[in-house]
């Protein structure tokens, strides 16, 4: 499986390095090409746009600063949605709300989407542990384990009653 990673900032950059270290063929994109220097030296391939990325990969992981940045990655003239997304898997790790994600993924008719928001501020005995908030269909989560091997982490499942945007503990 080929994985694309969009967003190589403090958290995304390290997450992408872990994917590369795991031996997964990885394509990278960031608004600042210099953010990819280490990734490229580790064997990742640079792409010039999100649209170009979707044509090379089976799975795209995005880890961005917030919802406006995520919207731009998807909907800009060179965004993911401007390319052929059919049969692709998209794992978004941008911290956002379930309501925002529900609205955002409506155009993804033929794409499996996993919303796995990252929250670094939830207290933990391990200060280096990142918390992932995952909203998924079981089949998408299972499929997502191929490019991103499962690790032992605590998780929080979003309330699924449709009326609330909050998570419950694992």
Task: Describe this entry's structure for a reader.
Pfam families: NAD_binding_2. One of its GO terms (molecular function) is NADP binding. This protein is an alpha/beta fold. It has a single domain (2-123, 138-169), classed as Rossmann fold (3-Layer(aba) Sandwich), CATH 3.40.50. Helix content is 26%, strand content 24%. It has 6 helices and 9 strands. The protein has a 9-stranded mixed β-sheet with strand order 3-2-1-4-5-6-7-8-9. Mean pLDDT is 75; it is low at 122-127, 144-156 and 162-170.
Please sum up the structure shown.
The protein has 170 residues and is of the alpha/beta class.
Keywords:
single chain, 170 residues, alpha/beta, Rossmann fold, 9-stranded mixed β-sheet, 6 helices, 24% strand, globular, disordered C terminus, 3-OH-isobutyrate_DH-rel_CS, NADP binding, 6PGDH_NADP-bd, NAD(P)-bd_dom_sf, GMC oxidoreductase
- How do the SSEs run, as a string of H and E? EHEHEHEHEHEEHEE
Oligomer: single chain
Main β-sheet: number of strands, strand sense, barrel status? 9 strands, mixed
Average predicted local confidence, pLDDT: 75
Which CATH architecture is right?
Answer: 3-Layer(aba) Sandwich
Q: Between the first and last Cα atoms, what is the distance in angstroms?
A: 29 Å
Strand coverage percent: 15-25%
Tell me the CATH topology: Rossmann fold
Q: Supply the number of helical segments.
A: 6
What is the overall shape?
globular
Task: Please tally the β strands and state the result.
Answer: 9
| Side-by-side strand order of the widest sheet | 3-2-1-4-5-6-7-8-9
* Overall CATH class: Alpha Beta
Annotated CATH homologous superfamily:
NAD(P)-binding Rossmann-like Domain
Structural domain count: 1
Low-confidence stretches: 122-127, 144-156, 162-170
Helix content: 25-40%
Structural class: alpha/beta
